Amino acid sequence: MTMNQQEFLNSILTEAERQAIKREQILVALSGGADSVALLRALLAAGCKCHAAHCNFHLRGEESMRDERFVRDLCQRLDVPLQVKNCDVAAWQHEHGGSVEMACRELRYAWFKPEVERTHCTRIAVAHHADDQIETFFLNLLRGTGLKGLAGMQRENGLIWRPMLNVTRAQVLDYLDSIGQDYVTDSTNLQNDFRRNRVRNVILPFIEQQFPDAKERIHKTMQNLASDLDLLEWLVADQGLDMPYIDIKDVIDHPYADALLYHHIREMGFNRDQCRQTIEAARKGHSGRQFAAGDHLLVVNRRNFQIIEHNEEPRDEEIPVDVTAGINSPINITAHRGQSPFSPSMCSDGRSVAFSTQLLDCNRIVLRHWRQGDRFQPFGMKGTKLVSDLFNDMKLDYEDKKRAWLLEADGQIIWVVGLRSSAHYPVPIGSQDYIILSKSMH
Question: pTM score, two decimals?
């Protein structure tokens, strides 16, 4: 369906937005292609004060420079302030990995935020339209996404504003034709090297050939899914799950426990499989399980699921100690030399441990915190055991693990303080050649 200039403006802007943008400054992501040029011209026609931001990724040689020259000329003619960013895609990929598409997206959005602040704009207008939504639907469908992915891009997402999601590519071109506005074309859009291009150039034309109204119906489906997602998020919020500690009882008895947990924490990057495994661990009483997503940890404790920001620096502090003098800091440990024949009952309170005085020949005895991969040989065992497995056996919460101290002698863990001693430096029954270390209750 074609539309005139006023119909196009009415389709992309609500009445509230039309009034708001007259008082705001908008940063327009301007590539020079039809979509972003139409967006810029429409916002200007609606009375908006615009700034433009153009990323030159230098991926298409002279064509990339042609796009930049076009954008510069267009903004000069329209009296729109323009900022151009030269981006090194290869350098980003070398540091972070990922595809060219991902690199371009990350570089673009990383630059937009400081540019918004510099220009005192209130938001970033991006020219995604209805056809882009449908392509996103199929890409996410093929990735095995959930409801959020199938619902497509949001009209507003933080600073990002996508006012053209309800107009098609054909309507964009009609609008540009009606105002006599030219634009540049990215030749790589016709190549099928990228997944999105294969969806655009191969899959969708075939579907439209078989089902002429397919795009309209898919777009309607996505709108319905977006409404369902809004309802689902409202229902999840209504469950009243607290953060960062989520009471296990409030989740695991729910008929859709893993889905409830997923929708409560997915914005932090956790996926469905992690949530399923979390629920399974809680039901089996496997406290101590941890799942990582970006800068967050999801931890299964005895009574709650805990969300922790784990971008803190690892604690590698090692505190040299003199065990003969006892320890006052960072924890209180008293030391007693043997005065009577040794009996295991002397260490039966669970807070004390005995070592032969051979321990005193060690060159370096330190207290430190637990690190991933730490192993020790528990007293009475022939082999070694992960300290983390001991923590899990004792059902320690994450915070208890972080607070735990290890006593290390010449590189060997000899005591998980207050919990378990190692097989090193054993004391024969009846010996008087020993030292007893006891952790204070306070």
Answer: 0.66
